[in-house]
Amino acid sequence: MALKSAKIYRRHPLDEFRARVCCQRKSGGVMAKPVRLQGVDDELQRVLDAKMDHVPARRRAREAFKEIQLGLDHCLFKFPYNGLKMKELYEVNSRGLEIFSKSWLPEISPPKAVICFCHGYGDTCTFFFEGIARKLALSGYGVFAMDYPGFGLSEGLHGYVSSFDRLVDDVIEHYSKVKENPEFCTLPSFLFGESMGGAVALKVHLKQPNAWNGAILVAPMCKIADDMVPPWLLTQILIGVANILPKQKLVPQKDLAEMAFKDMKKREMTAYNVISYKDKPRLRTAVELLRTTQEMECRLKEVSLPLLIMHGEADIVTDPSVSKALYEKASSLDKKLMLYKDAYHALLEGEPDEMIFRVLDDIISWLNEHSIKNAD
Fold it and tell me: pLDDT per residue over 82-138, tens digit each?
């Protein structure tokens, strides 16, 4: 997701950077503070406390916590799975990385369209999205999701994005195979991106301008507000150091769950997404996200596919003006902007139940309309 950095810097940017590096070295650690989860015994806690940099630890944690996660008292986990075909898969991509993916399909009738999901920076495709995917599949859609390299259950250093373009290419490679499947190749296909995943979806579209029938973007990361960009000198220092220490976790970050989730009870549940990346952003990752938002700001006019853009008006993670700019500048003839009063960043996961259901209904209504339009 796009991160809003505090604008006030009490020291010179160079001194600010030196202080962060020194603090990092003195602390001797880069892992997030271990979290003690309610109802978790000592054995499971040891699984949770393991270093998640590499995928075997993340896969062990997911397997250990899978049933606990799905048993949480969240409205998304209460959607039934009866009548659905669900499949999990590990496949090695062209870069030699083992990618995790999952699909949800209606069991009886053929799907009306294909939906390909792009998750956010602090997310995976096996936690909250499980409920979202069930709801969409129960509404007649074939839903496909993947964890990016370095995220969730896919291979790669945890939370490390060496190249945003390369990540987008990995997404294109995976979803192209899905769409080439004879079972789905004649169906309309839609991108669905949340937060950072919105930027991924838009970049996929820009690389494949005629390949998709539309995109659903929820609080998309496609521009950082001008007054939230760090001072020019500090930005240049971070970019330079990223070339030397790209994997270091030196970029400060506020509590994203606190900023993104309005509902306190749902906010507490984010800790149970045990394989999501919760540490400070790695230097190269932060630089790649910044560069991507700067590129997207310059290319909004090139966006030409049908769009449904959704944003909470009280979002302080990605400013709603980001979505307004996309809506105004995109060359799409078929575009819709929906702003939700008093809603935070996590529209589909962190709001009161009635807001979550409202947003889901809006998505399904738009999909129904555009699936019929493309079928005709």
Answer: 999 999 999 999 999 999 999 999 999 999 999 999 999 999 999 999 999 999 999
| Among 74, 119, 345, 370, the one annotated catalytic | 345
Nearest to 198 by CA among 283, 282, 105, 311: 311
Instruction: Give a yes or no: residue 171 inside a domain.
Output: yes
Catalytic residue among 315, 319, 323, 371: 315
Q: Residue 231 falls within a domain, yes or no?
A: yes
- Positions in the chain whose pLDDT score sits under 50: 1-31
Q: What does the pLDDT read at residue 235?
A: 75
Residue 236 is predicted with a pLDDT of 82
Domain of residue 203, CATH code = 3.40.50.1820
d(CA 334, CA 366): 11
The model carries a pTM of 0.89
Task: Determine which one of 5, 103, 154, 195 is catalytic.
Answer: 195
Query: Positive or negative, the Cα torsion across 307, 208, 329, 232?
Result: positive
Burial class of residue 358, CB neighbours in 10 A (0-12, 13-18, 19+):
middle
CA count, 13 A, side-chain hemisphere, 113: 26
Range of the domain at 99: 13-23+50-375
Alpha-carbon gap, residue 283 to 280, rounded angstroms = 9
